[in-house]
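Structure (tokenized):
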């Protein structure tokens, strides 16, 4: 699923914090995260160093307890 409702700047630190509603993930069909579920997350980013470009971060696997 994609969560396109938020855009944020990382600033000079290059880090981003994004909070998800685990009872309303943007997946088809909408799902509620249950203990033992594993989901993967990554972010799309743009940069202008030295030219304008975009890329994806490395994905992170999260297993919920």
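Design, position by position:
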């Amino acid at each position: 699923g994609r969560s396109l409702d938020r855009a944020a700047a990382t600033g000079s630190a290059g880090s981003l914090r994004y909070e998800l509603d685990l009872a309303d993930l943007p997946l088809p069909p909408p799902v509620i995260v249950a203990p033992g579920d594993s989901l993967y997350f990554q972010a799309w980013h743009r940069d202008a160093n030295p030219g304008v470009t975009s890329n994806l971060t490395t994905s992170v696997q999260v297993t919920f307890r």
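Reviewer-requested clarification: The CA atoms of residues 8 and 18 lie 9 Å apart. Strands lie at 38-41, 44-48, 52-56, 60-63.
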